Amino acid sequence: MEGESIGGGAEQLDRITARLEQLATQLEAEVDDARAAELIREASALAAEAGRAVEGALHGAPEPPQP
After folding, report:
1. pLDDT at 46 over 90
2. Could you tell me if 9 and 63 are in contact, meaning their C-beta atoms sit under 8 angstroms apart?
3. Averaged over 3-32, what is the pLDDT?
4. 3-state SS class at 63
5. Residue 62, Cα to own-chain centre: how many angstroms?
6. Average pLDDT value over all residues in the chain
7. If you write DSSP's letter for every residue of 23-45 in order, what string do you get?
8. What pLDDT shows up at residue 63?
9. Positive or negative CA dihedral for 13, 14, 15, 18?
10. What is the mean pLDDT of residues 37-42?
């Protein structure tokens, strides 16, 4: 069961990392302030989600349900 949690966490982290890379690319382009703020909010939420996934993987606990 612990292996399943860690494997799921790795897949989730891969997904989050890919999206963060997309957001970084978009932020490097010239975007208006409103769009930049939106991208930063999404990146912040993804960083928090990644932290929870890592914490869950380290402790072998199931990940919390997604809102």
Report:
1. yes
2. yes
3. 82
4. coil
5. 16
6. 82
7. HHHHHHS---HHHHHHHHHHHHH
8. 55
9. positive
10. 96
- Tally helices (H) and strands (E) across the chain: 2, 0
CA distances (Å), 55 to each of 1, 13, 30, 62, in order? 16, 12, 35, 10
The pair of three-digit structure tokens given for residue 52, joined into one six-digit string: 């929870």
Q: Is pTM, for the whole model, over 0.90? A: no
Residue 55 has pLDDT above 70, yes or no: yes
Residues 36, 30: Cα–Cα separation, whole Å: 9
Q: How many CB atoms lie within 10 A of CB 9?
A: 22
Can you read off the two tokens belonging to residue 59? 């402790």
* Residue 52 identity: R
> Any idea which residue has 């989600």 for tokens?
49
CB neighbours (10 Å) of residue 7? Answer: 11
